[in-house]
Amino acid sequence: MKIAFIGLGNMGGGMAANLVKAGHDVHAFDLSADALAKATEHGCATYTAVAPAVEGVEAVVTMLPNGAIVKAVLTSDVIGKAPAGALLIDCSTIDVATAREIAALAGSAGYQMVDAPVSGGIAAANGGTLTFMVGGTAQAFERASAVLEPMAKAVIHAGEIGSGQVAKMCNNMLLAIHMIGTCEALALAQKAGLDPQTFYEISSKSTGYCWSLNDYTPAPGIGAASPADNGYAGGFASALMLKDLRLAMAGAVDAGAMVPMGEHATEIYEAFVNSGGGGKDFGAIFTTL
Ligand code: NAD
């Protein structure tokens, strides 16, 4: 299949490479010359503008930093330039309202669209093991699945358009909250005189178990391997967690939902990022306790 891929950064670079490996003809575009050079190495055909990249394609995948950029790229360079009937798949993490607005614009111009944000970081993008949460009609989901499979461990239909972004914001708000809780429990155990490794052995098999504790233990040398064992380098940057929390807080306002723990988690990550921790893995909240 001829597929355009726009946004070849930390995530998109590996994702486009996996589409090439699956035998697709990938037409790649990014503003960065370095990203384009890497995409060429991975077997993509590269372009210096969006319009020629989307010519004659059956699907357009976007993996961009935020909703404003996704909207600008799709409305100015994709809608009306890609063949009518092409499927638009936005894998970026963006706000629900913008995802629905863009899909409506695309729909009125004759394009099916899905929002398909991902869980899993750069390693999963490179390894083709991302989880995609997809919002759109059943038919659009079926078409999108064929494109997403080579990049995926799981492709899940979340519901109508925007539902993928709803799932993503809720998942990452929950992740932030249980990560902070895990950091607090580990620090408290240690300060109150319990060996943190012993606490891990007990709580990871008790009702305190959760992904942050069991699979990504945020204290150095304790429990499961994680970026904590490497000075909190790599992993999922606190700045990206803050971005996702802000999207969740905006989504909660739109939905009229109460999220007191989400609000507090946002304040905690905001303070950490403002004090220079934005590049550190989100488990580094442990170091502030
Ligand atoms: P990134 O900054 O590494 O990559 C974004 C790419 O988009 C860059 O190469 C940039 O040059 C390009 N770009 C920006 N504006 C553009 C434009 N107008 N036209 C074409 N290209 C443009 O970001 P990333 O880490 O790859 O994240 C991409 C998306 O995936 C974000 O929405 C992010 O929230 C989400 N995400 C990231 C992770 C992660 O661990 N990095 C995990 C899950 C989801």
Descriptive keywords:
single chain, 289 residues, alpha/beta, Rossmann fold, N-(1-d-carboxylethyl)-l-norvaline Dehydrogenase, domain 2, 2 domains, 6-stranded parallel β-sheet, 12 helices, 49% helix, binds nicotinamide-adenine-dinucleotide
Per CATH, the architecture of the largest domain is 3-Layer(aba) Sandwich
What percentage of the residues does DSSP assign to strands (E)? 5-15%
CATH class of the largest domain: Alpha Beta
Helix content: 40-55%
Write out the strand line-up for the largest beta sheet, numbering strands in chain order.
Answer: 3-2-1-4-5-6
The small-molecule ligands in this entry are:
nicotinamide-adenine-dinucleotide
Summarize the structure.
The protein has 289 residues and is α/β, with parallel strands linked by helices. The chain has helices at 12-21, 33-41, 50-54, 67-78, 96-108, 122-127, 138-148, 163-191, 196-203, 211-214, 238-255, 260-277, and strands at residues 2-6, 25-29, 45-47, 59-62, 87-90, 112-115, 118-119, 130-135, 152-159.
What this model shows, in words?
The chain has two domains: 2-160, Rossmann fold, CATH 3.40.50; 166-288, N-(1-d-carboxylethyl)-l-norvaline Dehydrogenase, domain 2 (Orthogonal Bundle), CATH 1.10.1040.10. The relative contact order is 0.10. The protein starts with a strand and ends in a 12-residue tail after the last helix. The chain is elongated, with a radius of gyration of 20 Å. It is of the alpha/beta class and 289 residues long. The protein is built from twelve helices and nine strands. Strand 2, helix 2 (33-41) and strand 3 form a beta-alpha-beta unit. The chain has a six-stranded parallel β-sheet, sandwiched between helices. Strands 7-8-9 form a three-stranded mixed β-sheet. Residues 6-12, 29-32, 35, 63-65, 69, 73, 92-93, 118, 121-122, 236, 240, 243 line the site of nicotinamide-adenine-dinucleotide.
